[in-house]
Structures are given as C-alpha cells and as structure tokens.
Amino acid sequence: MPSTFLSLHYHLVFSTKHREPLIDPAWRSQLHEYLGGTVKGLGGRSEIVGGTEGRHPPLGTAAATN
Fold first, then answer.
1. Residue 29: left if φ>0, alpha if ψ -120 to 50, beta else—which one?
2. Residue 16 burial (CB < 10 Å; 0-12/13-18/19+)?
3. Which of 6, 50, 56, 57 has the most neighbouring CB atoms within 10 Å?
4. What's the confidence (pLDDT) of residue 5?
5. CA–centroid distance for 2 within its chain
6. Which has the closest alpha carbon to 56: 18, 37, 28?
7. Beta-carbon neighbour count of residue 35 at 10 Å?
8. Global pTM value
9. Helix (H, G, I), strand (E, B) or coil at 1
C-alpha cells in the first residue's frame, strides 16, 4: 500500500520599520508566545520563535490536510 509523507516548514521573517529596536526586552517573551500561539491556532506546530529587537522569525510546520 503506497503512502506519502508530507512535511511543510514555514520560515516567516518580518521586521520593524528600518529595523529599529522597538521591541522591548521586557515583553519580548510575550511576543514570542503570541507568535507561537498564532501558529498553533492555525493548525501548525511552532518549532522555534526568536530574534532580536527588530527581527522575529518564527519557524513552524503545518499539518497536511485531506
């Protein structure tokens, strides 16, 4: 019986305007949790979320759908 393995990985990159350090370290972890929760809410799995003051690239996987 044939089967197919499908694994989609998404690397989303966004930054603040002019890459200015606008993301305060005091609430940076909350932003990471929010981004991870957004990926989970879309049916994916958050692999890693991190970045610097001006750049936060989340990496996640999406489940295959029928």
1. alpha
2. middle
3. 56
4. 67
5. 32
6. 28
7. 20
8. 0.66
9. coil
Question: Which of helix, strand or coil describes residue 42?
Answer: coil
pLDDT confidence of 48, banded at 50, 70, 90? confident
64 pLDDT band (50/70/90 cuts)?
Answer: low
Contacts of 15 (CB under 8 A, 6+ apart): 54, 55, 56
44 membership: H or E segment, kind and range? strand 44-48
Q: How does residue 16 score in pLDDT terms, banded at 50, 70 and 90?
A: confident
Measured CA to CA, the distance from residue 11 to residue 28 in angstroms comes to 19
| Residue recorded with tokens 């005091």 | 26
Report the C-alpha gap between 20 and 41 in whole angstroms.
29
